Amino acid sequence: MAGVYVHIPYCIQACSYCDFHFTIYFGRIKQTIDAIILEADQKRDYLKDEIIETIYFGGGTPSAVPEDAIRQILIKIKNLYPINSHPEITLEANPDDITTSKIYNYQQMGINRLSIGVQSFNDDDLRLLNRRHSGKDAQTAVTNAIKGGFSNISIDLIYGIPGLKLVSWIENLEKAFNLGISHLSAYHLTYEPGTELYYRLQRNKIQQIPEEKSIQQFNQLLKLSEQNGFHQYEISNFAAEDKISKHNTGYWTGKKYIGLGPSAHSYNGIERQWNVNGIISYCKKVKAGEEYYEKELIDERTRFNEYLLTSLRTKWGIEVEKVKCDFGNVYLDELLKKTEKHLIHKNLICEKNRIILSGKGMFLADSIIQDLFIC
Which structural domains are found in the chain, ordered by start? Predict the structure, then answer.
């Protein structure tokens, strides 16, 4: 099984924390959609005969472009690739884009999962993040999507925001779970170079919250998710029963995928490709049949480190027997030697032939994984 990711690089306005590739100029939507459709055709043999299990429209803001643009791409994908009988088809949406007509049109074209970028239900947080919607808008959007027939809805929330108090974070989580969502992605705010929040931080206009407060917010996330029947299957992702994101889980478990659109990545188990960022360059090169991507062959060390990076973030962790079978005893011995100190400090635990992050280790995941890499 494999996936298709479609990058729609258009946003109505720039969020202050986002470093994804996007533009707020909508004058080249038609050229972009035409290029994505042409790229889909050019990559029809990239995964050989792998069955497509998931399709994911990300961005950018896919809900900001006309529904017919999404429909055209979906039709092309379904005509080109072998699709399983019940694919998971996700579309990322902003709350203020979700109208009754869009809900209907999305369902008619086969989209069966919405990922709604709420980020916060607190208006002060939303203004700091430069989001277009209000907290009330976000609640209305989720409610209307459920009333309109969507039974698989994910929302994004951000914690670690400057000035965010624990009580406000708890209120955010309670509002989310009370809405009837089936999936939650919750991320700690990061200050990416080039973003507005990064520059404000550098100029001392805002301050990062202390680490102990971040840990408190993370612990409340774990506690309230469990109380509401949501299982943590990846560090930042929580789902009700049988509602995990199949598409994102494919990334974490090493499945193959095709990426369409500017800046999109593709992986077929042997090599990785990444498309050029610029919309003009991407459209021009795809149309002319020129090379519009870079690529690298995945050597064994890179494959091993990527396996650690992705698998250790999940509840399934590192499978010891898989490491032995796929990479050999040399890699396994080095891994076990490096994990020993983390087992002692209870950052990692070994359970049923698997090495997984402990609750304590989850907040330190990035540094632990980096320490386990083979250089």
Answer: 2-251 (3.20.20.70), 300-372 (1.10.10)
